[in-house]
Design a protein that fits this description.
homodimer, Nucleoside Triphosphate Pyrophosphohydrolase, 8-stranded mixed beta sheet, 3-stranded antiparallel beta sheet, 2 helices
Chain lengths: ~180, ~180
């Protein structure tokens, strides 16, 4: 889901000020006093497999329209991280999945994101593109369109999936030291 | 840090509407059209030990003023989860710490929080109460004021710390099935 201010005018909580009793600037609305606390957002998603194939979605929306990604998106209120990853698999690929491990927690501080990517199994092969996907597909490792991957974290998650494919009870990987 | 609207009047993005092209209600400001996307917030913190003692902070702020907690708080923009946990240890207990494992990821969907609690070692015993703490202390396991703990997740993290005290490379625990 794309998130942002739909108005072009500089209204709403757009003034940076340090509120009383705080130590850093927050976005404040001069019209009504509303303070817009902005904290990092969680992206939840999964590496979904069926036998030796990986579920990928070709993006129908910005950013990176036309490139391939994992089913993943912003976690919503009043859900758990696992529920969010399951919801995203349904919304983007109409995929019903079962989650069994957390592969990685990828911090991307430049854009204030924390991505939590799970390992999951596709419960049946009735998949189809949701509204944010142009198409969806199941690819063997060598068929994956490596040159048309949408985001670095998709490469990280697929690689970490492969490193831990036969493991259970492992610590989730982090983002690489370089490459943000 | 307490987060909320400081004004009592019903102004700012307080109207629930489904924006065009979306599938769920968001808070919208009728004055300026600002859409306030609200997503779950990440709390980062740590179980900090020095030899056989645990660092706890007695809360000086609501909620649960006067009760004991781990150094933890809302993750801020442009930091990593580990940086956030280190910052909170400094802000609440003037503690310098080294983090070595992720103990738990505790979903609390009722309040749309995801808590990430790390295992950490205190680098020196020069600790003191920060502005949000009434006092700080180092307690052996049996000295911990178990009847005056601020939040259930403090119990979970201390218990999970104990279960994994001699382990490395383990999968982080989740919140208990019951008890939210």
């Amino acid at each position: 889901m794309t998130q942002g201010n739909t108005t072009g005018a500089a209204k709403g909580p757009v003034q940076l000020r340090i509120p009383p009793g705080e130590d850093r600037e927050r976005l404040v609305c001069d019209d009504c006093g509303f303070i817009n606390y902005v904290n990092p957002k969680i992206v939840v998603g999964s590496v979904v497999t069926h036998q030796d194939r990986f579920l990928l979605c070709r993006r129908a929306i910005e950013p990176r329209t036309g490139y391939w990604t994992l089913p993943a998106g912003y976690m919503e209120e009043r859900e758990t991280t696992i529920e969010g990853a399951m919801r995203e698999a349904w919304e983007e690929a109409r995929a019903r999945i079962e989650i069994d491990a957390l592969i990685g927690i990828y911090n991307i501080p430049r854009i204030s994101q924390v991505q939590m990517i799970y390992r999951a199994r596709l419960l049946d092969t009735n998949i189809s593109a949701g509204p944010e996907s142009r198409e969806v597909g199941l690819f063997t490792w060598s068929e994956i369109p490596w040159d048309e991957i949408a985001f670095p974290s998709v490469h990280w998650a697929l690689g970490h999936w492969r490193e831990t494919r036969d493991q259970n009870g492992f610590a989730p990987f982090s983002e690489p030291e370089q490459g943000l």
